[in-house]
Specification:
Strand 5 and strand 6 form a beta hairpin. Strands 9-8-10-11-7-12-15 form a seven-stranded mixed beta sheet, with helices on both faces. Helix 6 packs parallel to helix 7. The chain is globular and about 65 Å long. It folds into three domains: 119 residues, Beta-Lactamase; 112 residues, 3-Layer(aba) Sandwich (Rossmann fold); 115 residues, P-loop containing nucleotide triphosphate hydrolases (Rossmann fold, 3-Layer(aba) Sandwich). The N and C termini lie far apart (50 Å). It has 402 residues and is α/β, with parallel strands linked by helices.
């Protein structure tokens, strides 16, 4: 086995406690340190990408993939094998995709491992479900004041659907868990809370949580239909993925349950449009929907930022000067440290929106109605951060496009 040094960036070596002299028999220890180091560094995903000369490791930090290190080809298969053992996957099958989970015995934190065959071997992507940390309650999320107030108010309702939308990695899970903790705190144990998730990402002791298991016949729709017979007051549904689940969610809200759920859509209006295109009846949307929230995460600039001309970056707005990333040791050369949430809130009880839902208007018309109702969009929230020099025009474009 090769004992050749591995080029490890100083910041990574510091977090993982590793040096460049790696050997195959050290792989279990290396894997453990990589997982713990990635958590400490705030990474959400680890990518182990095989290539002709070895295994490239990349971490997704603050939503962006960053190359960390390259490991020699001699120990690449040992890395993959070790992770497959931890996730109870078939080590002898290298020609099919596999998925597994690893749950920390003490922390209860889950790690999801996905293995996929490629030309040079198996690629592994590890999703690290982070601890809630300082994001336990709504007030800790730094949501726009109007959004936080409306969400906080709606959590006291006894029926209806609160829909939280955004793409993968937009912080929906963090927000929905914070919302559940808010309900727990306010109810003082006087409300029955249940959840159906795929998978359970964070343990909430006060909530009866269930992970979907399609192989055993417990898919989201089947589980949800059974959950409503468990006398719940509040139901958290991890994600709406199909029409049947969506219909069951709205029907559950109409029989006296408060339902919190997430949905992949680019904005509040796109969420309504997609649900309508999915075939959800307008009366179900109109009667069952309490609110739609959409959110994104924008990286915030490090103190090494510099002011510059913004006209070439955002030509469609009146903005002459903005802050731009530079890069230093503190931010590991990225120019950014941490992220900030932006969010929009759509009230379906607004006359213009209610009428648009019942008439099945398209997204373009929904956008016009939302604007007339006074909704502050994600782009407007992002421009506020740009104007405050908290983020850059480049980050706005990366997340929301031009």
């Amino acid at each position: 086995m090769s004992n050749a040094p591995v080029d490890l960036p100083a910041w990574f070596a510091e977090y993982a406690g590793l040096n460049g002299n790696l050997k195959a028999n050290q792989v279990p220890q290396i894997v453990d340190r990589i997982l713990s180091g990635a958590r400490r560094c705030g990474a959400s995903d680890i990518h182990l990408r095989p290539h002709a000369n070895g295994l490239q490791m990349r971490w997704r930090i603050d939503g962006v993939v960053q190359t960390v290190a390259d490991f020699p080809v001699e120990i690449a298969t040992n890395f993959v094998a070790r992770l497959k053992v931890l996730a109870n996957l078939l080590t002898y099958r290298t020609d099919v995709p596999q998925e597994g989970r690893v749950t920390g015995s003490q922390s209860g934190l889950e790690t999801r491992i996905s293995v996929f065959p490629t030309q040079y071997g198996e690629k592994v992507v590890i999703r690290l479900f982070a601890e809630s940390g300082n994001l336990d309650r709504l007030q800790d999320l730094n949501l726009p004041a109007e959004v936080e107030q409306n969400l906080d108010r709606l959590l006291e309702q006894t029926s209806g659907v609160i829909l939280l939308t955004g793409p993968a990695g937009s912080g929906k899970t963090t927000t929905i868990y914070a919302a559940m903790r808010e309900i727990i705190h306010k109810s003082g144990g006087e409300r029955s809370l249940v959840s159906l998730e795929d998978p359970v990402e964070v343990i909430l002791p006060e909530v009866d949580q269930t992970g979907a298991n399609p192989k055993a016949g417990l898919d989201m729709m089947t589980g949800l239909r059974s959950l409503v017979r468990q006398d719940p007051d509040v139901i958290m549904v991890g994600e709406i993925r199909d029409r049947e689940t969506a219909e069951t969610v709205f029907q559950a809200s109409l029989i006296g349950n408060l339902v919190l759920t997430t949905y992949h859509a680019g904005s509040c209006t796109r969420a309504l449009g997609r649900l309508s295109d999915m075939g959800i009846e307008p009366y179900l949307l109109r009667s069952g929907l309490l609110a739609v929230f959409s959110q994104r995460l924008l990286r915030t600039l490090c103190n090494c930022k510099q002011l510059g001309d913004a006209t070439s970056a955002l030509s469609d707005v009146e903005l002459t000067q903005a802050a731009f990333p530079v890069g230093c040791e503190i931010c590991r050369g990225t120019g950014y440290r941490g992220r900030r949430v932006i969010s929009e809130y759509l009230d379906p009880d607004e006359t213009q929106i209610a009428d648009a839902i019942l008439r099945r208007l398209d997204v373009k018309m929904l956008n016009e109605r939302a604007s007339e109702s006074g909704m502050i969009t994600l782009r407007q929230r992002a421009l506020e951060l740009v104007n405050q020099h908290l983020t850059s025009p480049l980050e706005l474009i990366r997340v929301l496009g031009k």
